[in-house]
Amino acid sequence: MLERERSSFDRIRSELDDAAELSAMSDIGEGDAEELSRTVASLEAEIGSWEFRALLSGPHDRGDAILSIHAGAGGVDAQDFTEMLLRMYLRYAENSGFRASIIDESRGTEAGIKSVTLEISGEYAYGYLRMEAGVHRLVRLSPFNANQLRQTSFALVEVSPVIEDAEEVPIRTEDLRIDTYRASGAGGQHVNKTDSAVRITHIPTNVVVSSQSERSQLQNRENAMKVLKAKLYQKLVEEQEAKKQELKGEHKSAEGGNQIRSYVLHPYTLVKDHRTKTETSNALKVLDGDIQPFIESALRHFADTSKNT
C-alpha cells in the first residue's frame, strides 16, 4: 500500500514539473495550452485528495469498520428509521467500493429494525465512517399513524475499528459467556432448525455481542468475537482519552438533544449536520447513500478543532 502511494506521489511530482516547464514556454500553442489546463485541473484534484487523506492518520483509519445502528426514541418510526439508515450505509458502501455484510440483525415486530450490526471492509472504511458515530434524528409524517401526524424519531450509530492484532485487545476465555440459540429472520428453513446463532457476553464489562448471519455456528462465533474485540477496543480508548473522543465521540443516548445530524422530510426537506452546519435540501439523495460531503466536512472540522486545542 505504501509503495503504491509512493509511486503515485512520484508521478504527481513528475507531472507537476512537466506542467511547470510547459507553462514557462513562451511559444506554447493553443492545443498545448488546453492540454496544460486539463492536466493542472487533474493534478489539483489529486493533490486535494491527498490532502484529505492526510486527515485519516489514526492508527486504524485505513482499516475496516464495525458499524451498529440501534433504534432509539420513537417506537415503530424509530425502527423504520434504523432500517432507512441501514440502507443508506449499504448504498454508501457500494458507491465507495467497500464491501458490506450484515453480522447481526434484530427486526421489529411491526416494521423496521431494532438493531443491526454490519462489517464494512475497504481501504479507509473506518477512517471515513467513524464520523457517522452519534445520534441521528428523523422528522416526517409518520406512515404508521392513522392521522399521519408529524413524528420525530431517533437512532444511534456506533462505529468501531476491526482489530486484527490479538495483542491489542487481550481477551481471557474465562471472562466470556457464550450462548447459542436459533437464528431468526431471513435465511430459509435452516435458521429455525439449528442453534447456529451465537451470543457472547464479556463478563467484566458486560459488553454483549451476537451473530446469526452465517449457517455455521463456528463462523458466527468468529464474527461475534470480531465485533467484541472492536467494541472492547473502542471502550478502552474512550476510557483513556474520553476528552479527545478520538474514535466514537461522546457516547450519548438515542434521544432528543444529542443528535449529530437531522433528516427533515416534513414540512420541508433538509439534512443538516449539527457539528459542522453542513446541510442540503436533497434529503432523499442523502438517504440513498450520498453522505460523503458530510463525512469530509466533519473530518476537516475536527482536524481544525484539534489544531486549536
Walk me through this protein's architecture.
The protein is an alpha+beta fold. It folds into 3 domains: 2-53; 65-166 and 243-307, Alpha-Beta Plaits, CATH 3.30.70; 168-240, Double Stranded RNA Binding Domain (2-Layer Sandwich). The protein is 38% helix and 24% strand. It has helices spanning 2-23, 30-53, 75-96, 125-129, 217-240, 283-287, 292-307; strands spanning 65-71, 99-107, 113-121, 134-141, 150-161, 176-181, 197-202, 207-211, 259-264, 270-273, 279-280. The strands form 2 sheets. Strands 2-3-1-5-4-9-10-11 form an 8-stranded mixed β-sheet, with helices on both faces. It has a 3-stranded antiparallel β-sheet with strand order 6-7-8, covered by helices on one side. Strand 4 (134-141) and strand 5 (150-161) form a beta hairpin. Helix 1 (2-23) runs antiparallel to helix 2. It is globular and about 75 Å long. The two termini are 32 Å apart. 32% of the residues are buried. Mean pLDDT is 84; it is low at 187-192.
Give the topology:
Blueprint: H1 2-23, H2 30-53, E1 65-71, H3 75-96, E2 99-107, E3 113-121, H4 125-129, E4 134-141, E5 150-161, E6 176-181, E7 197-202, E8 207-211, H5 217-240, E9 259-264, E10 270-273, E11 279-280, H6 283-287, H7 292-307
